[in-house]
Design goal:
- The protein is of the alpha+beta class.
- The protein folds into two domains: 88 residues; 157 residues, 2-Layer Sandwich (Endonuclease, Chain A).
- Helices cover 49% and strands 15% of the residues.
- The protein contains seven helices and nine strands.
- A hairpin with a 2-residue loop joins strand 1 and strand 2.
- The N and C termini lie far apart (120 Å).
- Keywords: Membrane, Transmembrane, Transmembrane helix.
Length: 272
């Protein structure tokens, strides 16, 4: 009823040759050996390319690091504006190093992956960029800065450019500074020249009470007239091991903000 299974024969000129199991295994083994050899060559070439790529990246990082060292060492310490400019350039170069090396790091940890990142995301701590966007918003009509040295507005190019743009669009600025600030008249003239604005739009108020000043700046944003007060009072969080200027800011609670605004308004009225 059923046909007998056919026997497959591979014939040549010398007669019939049966392809048994061992012969098939030998052929398969040979093919696997060839594939393994080709794979080994591919892995070797890929590894060699990776080594060359990594070597090129390290060479670039080495060059950037040398440039950073040059920029930070050969600066006249007395020239504050130039020094700040050079440090900003060095910071940008260091960030380039971080970008170049990021692809070779298996686990990348930024501040947003830490506890401080949670505080930032919940607006318990504000970044300088966020504060800058608030200061440049159309709702802000007046900005007060309680500062012991008129920085960073005096020397930081990015901050100066932002204030100048805001002044040009009608935002008023008041700088409260210590009456005994060294070389205060020269610094006031320089800051006014940098940001523009007349004496009504940009005011400087000298305060004799040293108790109002700390190494950290306090900034106040008024969306209405200052007479109505504001809850938008922020103070720098100065991380002295990283920077003398605040990288982050925290918002003061309402009672403190109200008392500070009232105290500064008295100084402003006295100077008028």
């Amino acid at each position: 009823m059923f046909a007998e299974p056919a026997i497959v024969e591979f014939a040549d000129d010398g007669g019939g040759v049966d392809m048994d199991l061992m012969s098939w295994l030998a052929v398969v083994s040979g093919v696997i050996s060839i594939i393994a050899f080709v794979f080994a060559i591919w892995v070797w070439l890929k590894s060699d390319i990776k080594v060359l790529e990594l070597s090129a990246a390290l060479q670039t990082v080495h060059g950037i690091a040398e440039s950073v060292v040059w920029n930070t060492h050969f600066v006249n310490a007395g020239d504050e504006s130039t020094r700040l400019s050079q440090m900003e350039r060095a910071h940008g170069q260091v960030m380039a190093i971080r970008t170049l090396t990021a692809k070779y790091v298996e686990v990348q940890v930024g501040y947003r992956n830490t506890e401080i990142g949670t505080l930032i995301d919940r607006r318990i701590i504000w970044t300088t960029d966020w504060l800058g966007r608030l200061e440049s918003s159309r709702e802000v009509r007046e900005v007060w800065l309680l500062t012991h040295d008129l920085e960073p507005d005096l020397s930081a190019a990015k901050t100066t450019a932002m204030v100048k743009k805001n002044v040009a669009t009608g935002t008023r600025y008041v700088y409260f500074h210590p009456a005994d600030l060294p070389d205060v008249e020269s610094k006031v003239r320089r800051l006014r020249r940098n940001v523009g604005g007349d004496t009504v739009q940009v005011r400087f108020v000298a305060i004799s009470d040293p108790g109002l000043f700390t190494p950290a700046n306090v900034i106040m944003f008024f969306k209405d007239e200052p007479a109505y007060g504001t809850d938008l009072v922020f103070q720098e969080i100065v991380l002295t091991k990283i920077s003398e200027r605040g990288i982050f800011w925290q918002e003061h609670e309402r009672d403190y903000a109200a008392k500070l605004v009232h105290r500064l308004r008295q100084e402003l009225d006295r100077a008028s």
